[in-house]
Amino acid sequence: MSGRWGRLYNGETTIDFVGRRWWGFIASGIVVLATLFSLLFQGLNLGIDFEGGVAWEAPLKNELSIDSATKILEENNIETRSAKIQTLGGGSSQRIRIQADDQSAEVRSAVQKSLSEKAKVDVAEVSVSSVSSSWGRSITTKAIRALLVFFLIVSLYIAWRFEWKMAIAAILAMVHDVVVSVGVYSLLGFEVTPATVIAFLTILGFSLYDTIVVFDKVHDNTGRFGASRVSYEDIVNVSMNQVLMRSLNTSLAAILPVVSLLVLGAGVFGAVALQEFALALFVGLLTGAYSSIFIATPLLSIFKSREPKFRSLIGQRSLKADMTTLMQTGSSVSRKQSVRSGADAANATSTPIDAVTAVLSHPPRPRKKTRR
């Protein structure tokens, strides 16, 4: 395999990731700011498990529709502006789901009976579920606690396995993933359910794995180039190009099953639980693959480049053919060395006659007079 794809497959690309790191930082900064504004003015579309309330589900057929369901809520003095009415599934198995604030047992039964009459089905085919707001707050607290414990354990492991600067970069990348994923849910109004929280914790594990793969290669190349004067920016660039194909393959292999869950499970078969879980996975997998390349490793290069060993080499990067040479030989030529080598080459091309002329160009020293 030759050409661009062949170089990518063999880990021989020469992309200057460190030189383009500000592109990723600016893009992430814009998304984070949009997330903060969205959370401030719009908030999250929390499901019934977090806000508390009551939900009815009934077959969507005969005279039952979204308009008739809204009218049933109004007849039972239920606030329709805060209620959520959505259709689930497709074809003959299509159902309608109604979520509203918590109601008394009499109101729940009345709405259930009205829905069954409109759909012309038995009352038992209309399901009713109620969740208290205290249970939702308990789930939220446990999810945040689990997230903090996960961050702590991960940072300790990375600091023990590699070093603490890698741990900080990895944690910042995972925080970035959580913020961006939450921002997507807030901006697009997706409903946040317990399945969403579980998916978030799952994608953090994937993001960490992808970051560790890159960090492990950086750690190996740091030892490989330790005997030569190679900048840490070069080490990061070489490492990321070498594992780029592996990261892409890992992300693609993880995203394809999730896409099938969204298209087949949620779209064709109407499994809403799969849709909630798969949607969070899809957003998180894309964010995790992005952050391992454009957030975690560039941050590491900034932290490490300021160490005394690499500080004098900041800004010295091998590009294109020079990066290929660095990958093959394990050593690079700095700018000063390149200038010096050019001068030496120019001197080497001068002819011996020129050298003799340069020597004889000096005036001869006068001879001392000797006495006879």
From TrEMBL:
Primary location group: membrane
Limits of the SSD domain: 163-302
Cellular localisation: Cell membrane
InterPro entries: SecD/SecF_arch_bac, SecD/SecF_bac, SecD/SecF_CS, SecD_SecF_C, SecD_SecF_C_bact, SecF_bac, SSD
GO cellular component, one term: plasma membrane
Keywords from the UniProt entry: Cell inner membrane, Cell membrane, Membrane, Protein transport, Translocation, Transmembrane, Transmembrane helix, Transport
Gene Ontology biological process terms from the UniProt entry: intracellular protein transport
SUPFAM superfamilies per UniProt: Multidrug efflux transporter AcrB transmembrane domain (SSF82866)
Membrane topology (UniProt): Multi-pass membrane protein
Transmembrane segments: 21-41, 143-160, 167-188, 194-215, 252-273, 279-303
Molecular function GO terms recorded: protein-transporting ATPase activity
Protein name according to UniProt: Protein translocase subunit SecF
Species this chain originates from: freshwater metagenome
Lineage: unclassified sequences, metagenomes, ecological metagenomes
